[in-house]
Design brief:
mainly alpha; 10 helices; elongated
Amino acid sequence: MSWVFANISMLAHLTGQNAYLALVPVLIGLVISVPLGIVCARWSWLYSPVLSITSVLYALPALALFVVLIAYTGLTDTTVMIPLTVYTLAVLFPSVVDGLRSVPEPVRQAAVAMGFGTWRRLAFVELPIATPVVIAGLRIATVSSISLVSVGELIGIGGLGYLFEDGQQRDFTTEIVTGIVLIIVLALVADTVLVLARRWLTPWQRGAGGDSRLPILRATLRGRPGAGLT
């Protein structure tokens, strides 16, 4: 423990770097996955080829991607973030499509009957209903990304992965264990934030029994002329 307190500043810096390198690719992956998932949910014939591409990219070894990217992006954060973004896509993209496909057809029909256009129905009915599935994928992608950042230490940019490399070279177990604990804590904090975000974004699911997807349509229609008619 004395080593931990003596190096608290370094540990805080590495933890912050690890969080930055992990979360930025997740956000980029989410920004790409949502519109891509919407397109593939609307035109289902696109889903299989796009999923195949993301799956193939996910299978690429990080080290091989580093070797290719270094020639273009150098030894920078970008070199680590690009592979992590690719891996995130492989998790988030199918989650978005599955979430949109989980919207019951009667709910879509009810929204159309209430005068919702395509984009309004998507924004106020379909995406909110898909949110729990999307966040489930986001939780997996986030935790995986936080763990995979340490691989970047192969090129000297690995956040908490530095503790593994340095601890192994010095045969110092305390440093390695500290790195493992900090990664677990960081992953738990990020996962907790996402769980709270899901609860905040889907209030109709709290304690809901049976099909909890219809209340979102009712909530969306509140305040509209004639919305009280049932």
